[in-house]
């Protein structure tokens, strides 16, 4: 059995339970521990809580230092497509500010490379599951940008009044 640093080896993570009833596969919700739905569709999403940083916008296995370190805060995992769109716009605004910081500090090549790798979605999400997948892609992309900013030592540039007004 593989030992993981986030969960004890005696507590395996169950993603889904195959069911032989009518050949259907039922999924096991890792949040409420009930069978029949995926955790993104759980009715208890208002109560999502990260046990590492105690924020209410992600699960502990999605927690990253870049998410906790002063980046856009979300109160919860979105329950509607409209909530996702608001969150996505906040991430895109933050990413645009970070691109400008990279350019202003002489890291044009890094900014262009990161911009070229941004997630492309040809249509808006039609379901909440699509919205959550797009949200995850944008969060991953933006945390890469934040990590690049931090690696180049220009994190302090994000604390001016104009940038702070956009961020929070």
From TrEMBL:
Organism for this UniProt entry: Cucurbitaria berberidis CBS 394.84
Classification of source organism: Eukaryota, Fungi, Dikarya, Ascomycota, Pezizomycotina
Domain of life: Eukaryota
Ranges in coiled-coil conformation: none
Protein name: CCHC-type domain-containing protein
GO molecular function: nucleic acid binding; zinc ion binding
CCHC-type domain location: 28-44, 49-65
Listed InterPro entries: Znf_CCHC, Znf_CCHC_sf
